[in-house]
Amino acid sequence: MAKSTDQELNYYRKQCNELGRHILHLQAEKTRTRQDAARKRMLTELVSNAYRLENEWTQLDGIEQPCLQVILKALQVDRAALLEFIPQDSSFKPVSASGFPSELPSRFRPPVLPEENYHVNSSTRPGVLVDSFRSFAGVPYLMWAFEPRANLALLVGNNTEDQHLHRPFDEKDYEIISTALIVFIDIEDRISSKKALLDSEEKYRLLVENANDAIFVAQDGRIKFANSKTTQMSGYRLSDLINMPFADLIHPEDRDLVITRHFDRVHGKNPPSRYTFRIVDTADKPLWIDLNAVLIEWDGRPATLNFARDITRQKQLEAQLRNAQKMEAIGTLAGGIAHDFNNILSAIIGYTDLATLILPEDNQARTSLGEVMKASQRAKELVYRILSFSQMHEQEQKPVRMDLIIQEALQLIRPSLPSTIEIVLETDCKGTILADPTQIHQVVLNLCTNAYHAMLENGGRLEVRLAKVKILLDESVDHLDLDTGDYLKLTIADTGYGMNEQTMQRIFDPYFTTKENGSGTGLGLAVVYGIVSAHKGAIQVNSTPGEGTTFEVFFPSVRRFTKREQPSYVEPSPGDEHILFVDDEAPLVQLATQLLEKCGYRVAGYTNPLDALELFRAEPHKFDLVITDMTMPHMTGNQLVKAIQDIRPEIPIIITTGYSEKISPEKAQMIGVRDFIMKPLNYGELTKRIRRVIDQILSDR
Prior knowledge:
Elements: H1 2-56, H2 64-75, E1 79-86, E2 91-98, E3 119-120, E4 129-136, E5 139-147, E6 152-158, H3 172-209, E7 214-219, E8 222-226, H4 228-234, H5 238-241, H6 255-266, E9 274-280, E10 286-298, E11 301-310, H7 312-358, H8 365-391, E12 398-401, H9 402-413, E13 421-426, E14 432-435, H10 437-454, E15 460-471, E16 485-494, H11 501-504, H12 524-534, E17 538-544, E18 548-558, E19 578-582, H13 586-598, E20 602-606, H14 609-618, E21 625-629, H15 637-647, E22 653-657, H16 665-670, E23 675-678, H17 683-700
Parallel strand pairs: 13-15, 19-20, 19-21, 21-22, 22-23
Antiparallel strand pairs: 1-2, 1-6, 3-4, 4-5, 5-6, 7-8, 7-11, 9-10, 10-11, 12-14, 14-18, 15-16, 16-18, 17-18
Helix pairs in contact: 1-2, 1-3, 2-3, 7-8, 7-13, 9-10, 10-12, 14-15
């Protein structure tokens, strides 16, 4: 019985022990499950908190310390440090640390080093080395993870061994610390990439914002992006430009071209990527731009990236060059006309002189011939004025009568004005200014021409007045930048369509014109402004739309005046010398021969310079003087001069010309010519010059 009882007790004891072991096993499993769940929560919390921190982090530096706080909380430890590995001496330096009793050394070698046996955590990225060790930097329990490729390490530690917190660390903690290190490395990489991207964007932003070209993106016919140069060029604020239809910026005459090419490019066609057109800024000022357009994607859809450069100044210079070429062509044409017309005038004046010499003193025809001579003289002055104007050369300023220049200018323009325009001239003031007469002539012509165009359709009244004014000290501000003193005020007023305030602010800008294409260059008033400024004067304008325009031009007055020489009859000077006369115009040769022979000279006249040279070569000492035209076929006047001088160097020579750019009084003197005479020839003056040259030669012997 006792034995049976003992057996039963042993059986129940075994069963109890077995049950106890089972209960302990279940408790251990429960603890492990709870620990595993805790570890998973720790990992989840670690990863989510770390990446949330990275997403919320607005700075590009200093995230290490906030990351350590996340790691401390997730791993439930007291101490943590991020370390950078220095391969040269196998040491570490702290990047950031938290919770250590004392500051970590700037460089140190911990008890466990990379070359020793680390555990390799296979559950995370290969190559992360982890281990635990005791007592370092005043902390009794530590765990360590190292990523050799990134040269970064994570060190965590705890002051107490708490079984509830599963300390000291074991291999199951390795996954947590290696994950924490990998997450930190990933966050560092992402922030570095973000920083590199922002640095790159900043570089491009600096390039775009400081570019000398306007850069903008156009999509769906609207501006989606614009740099600061675009705002400067257009005059619009950036907020106004964004989403503005870019067609609003384009000059109406160029709008169809630009819009068509933009949409052709967006739809895959291949229009020219570079071309020029005009835009209009906020002040309605047209600007020429050179555009280079590139097809891009903007927010996932086709758009154009546009580079625009302001070439307005270049266009102005090109127009100036074209205008200069036109003026050069006009000058060449005027020179040819002057040459031919002066030859014609020479014949008219010469035959008038010849007729006057033939007719008796009491013949009534002499009066008519006198009128012919006066008209010829006016024609001669007209040719000279046209020639001077077309050459556009800068002449020396000299005292001139302003009223006389105004009268001459109006005589030139009056025939071109329609009868519907009345001219009122008030120039009784006989003031004098220091000026280039041709340029003042141009000022009057340009202002009167502008007034004429303003009244072309409906007619009107053109008033031209000249008055003396005195600018006092308290009035100088009202008269622009004029110094105090005496001035002549030229007023040119019309009753045309007038101008508004915006137009008046721009009328002196080069190439600004209100006329239709082909009706004006936009240079007239700009030239006027330049001439007036060069003469130390000032110009101001007043205008009302529908009522007309008044220009007031101020020139400093001077007291000196150079009286213009009036043409007078010159009595022919007789002689008996032998003269070789060469001109390609047969009537002039015939006329000169008759007139000079009437004065007693012996004349051999030739229209071919080669024939004249042959005669001179055959009998070089037969002649006392040679008179030759400059512009002739076969041989020019200066070539004939050289050929004659090669034969007989001391022979006196006179050159005549209707007009030639190749000869001038100075050039003639340089090649040894004794005198230079501009046609048309007045034969009394010609004989006087012949006599003076010959007498000078005789006196020098």
